[in-house]
Amino acid sequence: MSLGEILDASLWLLRDHARVLVGAAAVLHVPMALLLTAWPLLPVSAALMALVFPLVHAVVTWTVGEVYLGRPVSVPSALRAVWSLLLPLTGTMLLVWLFFAIAVTVIMLASVITGMVVGRFGAAAAVIVTAPAFFIYLGLIFALLAPVMVLERTFGPRALRRSRDLLRGSGGRALGAYLAGSVLVNVLSGVVQMALGRVPVLGPIGIGLARAAGVAYTSAVLVLLYFDIRCRKEAFDLEHLARLVAREPLAVPAPA
User: Fold this and answer.
1) Three-state SS letters, 110-174
2) Cystine design at 199: which of 25, 111, 203, 217 (Cβ 3.0–4.6 Å)?
3) Which comes out higher in pLDDT, residue 3 or 165?
4) Which residue, among 189, 191, 218, has the nearest Cα to 37 in the 3D structure?
């Protein structure tokens, strides 16, 4: 599928399964919105978001995967499935954050060395040019990390390598998926913020639901991209069909 077809299919998927997809994300996003509205200066708010977002993404990823494969799914079953993977998921996400921390350290050291050689302005220009490109690259090679972890039960360095290998040749589509999801989240959140931002309880709930819808859509796009890449590179569609045939007895025609 092209990126446009993936975006369109994700919208249809979200429309047809909105209750379970948005509900799975809302279970965590709505309480977080209420909490951050009640205590906007909560010292651990950033840490909470850094922990909650990957979990939300994992829950919705599992839900989209089950829907795509034609299996029955519910919000409780999605939460149970991801809860059983909590420790390896958290460990892998900490590894990703370690990668980003190392990247920041390397960029800072490089800027100091560049500043000593070519001056302060040269160092600033080098950081402005290289840092965004490097972080975009890291974001792209890890874009399919959630589907790899949740749907393949692969974690740690193997999951990072698997995401990188799958995305070879598909970085542009992954970037488009991220941009589409970000635009949807920001537009929905902005509209709800303008309409309900001053309403004490309804406002945060609406913002949480808008963010949940955006996360559900972004997750759907990335999961469909993941399956599309696997179908192209690994003939996943044929593998899945073979599993279905092996699971269900073949229909034998009645004798004439």
Assistant:
1) HHHHHHHHHCHHHHHHHHHHHHHHHHHHHHHHCCCHHHHHHHHCCCHHHHHHHHHHHCCCCHHHH
2) 203
3) 165
4) 189
Q: Where are the domains of the chain?
A: 3-247
Tens of pLDDT along 202-229?
A: 778 888 888 888 888 888 888 988 988 8
Task: Transcribe 53-91 into DSSP letters.
Answer: HHHHHHHHHHHHHHHHTT----HHHHHHHHHTTHHHHHH
pLDDT of residue 122: 60
CA distance 17 to 222: 16
- Decide: 26 and 209 in contact? Cβ < 8 Å: yes
Q: What is the pLDDT of residues 118-156, one digit of tens each?
A: 666 665 666 676 777 777 787 788 889 999 999 889 999
Measured distance between the N- and C-terminal CA atoms of the chain, rounded to whole angstroms: 43
Structure tokens at 128: 């402005």
User: Nearest CA to 27 among 58, 6, 56?
Assistant: 56
Task: Using a cut of 0.85, tell me whether the model's pTM lies above it.
Answer: no
- Please state, in angstroms and rounded to a whole number, the distance separating the CA atoms of residues 221 and 5: 10
Which residue in 64, 79, 76, 50 sits closest to 217, CA to CA? Answer: 64
Q: Identify the helix (H) or strand (E) that includes residue 47.
A: helix 45-68
Whose tokens are 């790899």? That residue is 148
